[in-house]
Specification:
Elements: H1 3-9, E1 13-17, E2 23-27, E3 44-53, E4 57-66, E5 71-85, E6 101-110, E7 116-121
Antiparallel strand pairs: 1-2, 3-4, 4-5, 5-6, 6-7
Length: 122
């Protein structure tokens, strides 16, 4: 996969929970290494993608190298497949939306030593 192909797969935005105050958008095209303030996508290079999947979740992890601080971090997207079922809104028994299973995406950011640094949602 090329660098452009990897960037096309990575979501541009995520959300950080603010407790009872809702959620805040965060751009994922930035360096997450503490002390580095690089937000220039041209200086971020996706290196590789790893993917694992089972019945419960799909995990896609992207290793990204920052040319500004010369360090690598990982963006990991964990899709939990069966979080809840959609509430019944229609009395039409033929409506397939009634049985739709809802999923949820969680974002983890790890430094080059595997230490978890950030958590969000997509």
């Amino acid at each position: 996969m090329t660098e452009k192909d990897l960037w096309d797969e990575i979501p541009y935005m995520g959300y950080i929970a603010l407790g009872r105050r809702g959620m805040e958008k965060i751009e994922l095209t930035q360096c997450f290494i503490p002390g580095c303030e690089n937000k220039n996508i041209e200086k971020l290079k996706p290196i590789k993608k790893e993917e694992t999947e089972d019945e419960v979740k799909l995990v896609q992890t992207y290793s990204i190298h920052c040319e500004e601080c010369n360090k690598t971090f990982k963006l990991s997207f964990e899709t939990l497949k069966k979080v809840a079922r959609k509430k019944k809104r229609s009395i039409d028994e033929n409506n397939d939306d009634q049985n739709e299973i809802l999923s949820m995406g969680v974002i983890y950011v790890f430094d080059d030593n595997g230490k978890k640094m950030h958590l969000g949602f997509f």
